[in-house]
């Protein structure tokens, strides 16, 4: 992890602050692309994931934004009440699980704090002259963050205030996109679930790319015990029904990465060499050759992993 310092805190709305993080010596930071996030370790040693919402051309600072959530797991409470300019925080280099692909056009959808990766995407698409537009959903005008930056994009950005305008018709929004338009969306669980259920409303040739903060709600079969073969060390690790794969690997002394422990950040990805994983993450890994060990399990009695 990189030791960084808080170089600026800006109140964006009554419940959102943006925070700029820089190296203590002001040197350049590892580069990033729109959609990337960083894992931030707080004093409690808990790690939280925050999308980068600054300008990728700002090579000496990462900007994140944090919502003050009454039901937070502690991260936003600490940041809003105790974090100050000059404080040191530890940050993993950016990783991008929500990258922009090539498309003839882009529809960006943000709800609430989901504006963070979407803002970075808008800035990039605007800089390269790609056709794009954005719909930003918020309940009240005072909850809209980054207002000045968004105003600079003119009528490419539409803000919908559900408190005064009513709930937006997402089916109509998706259906109004030109065919081939790629949709990038980020927001809270209800918004993400609604979009997932509306994929069939997308125009022909369009794809929906979604970033979730919270795990998707799904039902799984009861946990069963299985074995992990750690190919690099040749160790066999038993995963009891009540343990996660990550817990079992770490408990056996196998070094395995992990951060959110909820199947949303992607940091615990391990390549599968043999066996059939039961994917329980919210990252859309069906059919891929990696497994997210913090939540996923095995459909076969054993899984061989490249760890
Ligand atoms: S630790 Fe975040 S997906 Fe597993």
CATH superfamily of the largest domain: Nucleotide-binding domain of ferredoxin-NADP reductase (FNR) module
* End-to-end distance: 20 Å
Helix content: 10-25%
Biggest sheet: strands, sense, closure? 6 strands, antiparallel
Give the count of structural domains: 3
CATH third-level topology of the largest domain: Rossmann fold
Q: Within the largest sheet, what's the order of strands?
A: 4-3-6-1-2-5
Radius of gyration equals 20 Å
Ligands in the model, by name, code or SMILES, are: FE2/S2 (inorganic) cluster
Q: Which structural class matches the secondary elements?
A: alpha/beta
Any guess at the CATH architecture of the largest domain?
3-Layer(aba) Sandwich
Order of H and E elements = EEEEEHEEHEHEHHEHEEEHEEEEE
CATH hierarchy, class of the largest domain? Alpha Beta
The overall pLDDT average reads 93
Strand portion, in percent?
Answer: 25-35%
Number of helices: 7
């Amino acid at each position: 992890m990189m030791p960084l310092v808080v170089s600026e805190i800006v109140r964006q709305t009554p419940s959102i602050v943006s925070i700029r993080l820089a190296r203590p010596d002001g040197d350049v930071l590892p580069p990033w692309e729109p959609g990337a996030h960083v894992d931030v370790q707080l004093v409690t040693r808990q790690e939280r994931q925050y999308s980068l919402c600054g300008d990728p051309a700002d090579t000496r600072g990462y900007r994140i934004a944090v919502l003050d959530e009454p039901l937070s797991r502690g991260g936003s409470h600490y940041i809003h009440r105790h974090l100050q300019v000059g404080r040191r925080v530890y940050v993993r280099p950016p990783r991008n699980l929500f990258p922009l692909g090539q498309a003839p056009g882009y529809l960006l959808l943000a709800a609430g704090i989901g504006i963070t990766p979407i803002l970075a995407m808008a800035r990039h698409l605007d800089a390269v002259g790609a056709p794009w537009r954005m719909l930003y959903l918020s309940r009240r005008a005072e909850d809209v963050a980054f207002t000045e930056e968004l105003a600079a994009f003119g009528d490419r950005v539409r803000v919908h205030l559900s408190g005064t305008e009513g709930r937006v018709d997402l089916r109509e929004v998706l259906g109004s996109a030109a065919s081939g338009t790629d949709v990038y969306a980020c927001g809270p669980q209800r918004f993400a679930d609604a979009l997932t259920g509306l994929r069939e409303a997308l125009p022909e040739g369009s794809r929906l790319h979604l970033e979730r903060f919270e795990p998707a709600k799904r039902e799984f079969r009861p946990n069963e015990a299985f074995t992990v073969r750690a190919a690099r060390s040749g160790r066999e690790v038993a995963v009891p029904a009540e343990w996660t794969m990550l817990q079992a690997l770490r408990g056996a002394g196998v070094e395995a990465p992990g951060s959110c422990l909820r199947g949303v950040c992607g940091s615990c990805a391990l390549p599968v060499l043999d066996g059939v994983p039961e994917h329980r993450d919210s990252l859309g890994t069906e059919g891929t050759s990696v497994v997210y060990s913090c939540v996923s399990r095995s459909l076969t009695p054993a899984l061989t992993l490249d760890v």
